[in-house]
Amino acid sequence: MSQLPEAEYAALAKSLVPIDFSLGQKLSEPNEPIEYVYFLSTGLISTDAVTKNGDSVEVGVIGREGFSGLAALLDQPQMSHAVMIQGIGNGHRIRSSIVRDEFKKGGVLQQLVHTFSYLQMVQVTQSVLCNRLHEVERRLARWLLTSADRMEAEELNLTQEFLAQMLGVQRSTVTVAASALQRAGFISYSRGRIHILNRPNLMKAACECYNTVSESYRRLLKHGPDESLTYVVSQTDSIRRNA
């Protein structure tokens, strides 16, 4: 993916604040103002649809290929979904108003945001189909692979509570599905820690939704989620050194 020209990332980098993300940290709440945009260097962001009763289901995940707070750039000060950290890591935050002002100027930043917006739409729409038509075991395989891709790691710290939320099922259902994948030798699962042991076979066990979304990422990001909007974050130190 094209990287931001120096003038564009310099305009953002001077306002970036380093931050460590903790598991379960809320980045934005439903129907609350989106004060900050968050960029990950490591970790995993989860976007969840939430009912009035507090039940939720995950509709998308974000790694360092993207950011949280997209709605704020589109002149929507709040969103109906919850956004939280589901994989600890670090990154930067910046006031959403600053990114919105730069986004409206056009240029490469605007192009990258449009690409990220489309990828989020692909995830969300595919999740609707997946939750309606596919078996839990295949859906679990898909989300484990997706989470690993976004975190760029084959070992994940995912609790049963989060897996149940991710799939919109009961914890007991998650236990059965995870046990089946473990018996097949595709993963190891113990005390909230999941290690992908056999990615090729886990991909075969996953539903078609994994490939559908992954192909969109490969097509639009060219080299995968490692080249992304968070390029602006990686330039922060060099900008400060040259200031």
Automatic annotation (TrEMBL):
GO terms for cellular component: cytosol. InterPro entries: cNMP-bd_dom, cNMP-bd_dom_sf, Env_Response_Regulators, HTH_CRP, RmlC-like_jellyroll, WH-like_DNA-bd_sf, WH_DNA-bd_sf. Keywords: DNA-binding, Transcription, Transcription regulation. Residues 134-200 form the HTH crp-type domain. Transmembrane segments: none annotated. Residues 1-74 form the Cyclic nucleotide-binding domain. Pfam families: HTH_Crp_2. One of its GO terms (molecular function) is DNA-binding transcription factor activity. It comes from Edaphobacter paludis. This is Crp/Fnr family transcriptional regulator. Gene3D superfamilies: Jelly Rolls, Winged helix-like DNA-binding domain superfamily/Winged helix DNA-binding domain. The keyword Manganese does not apply.
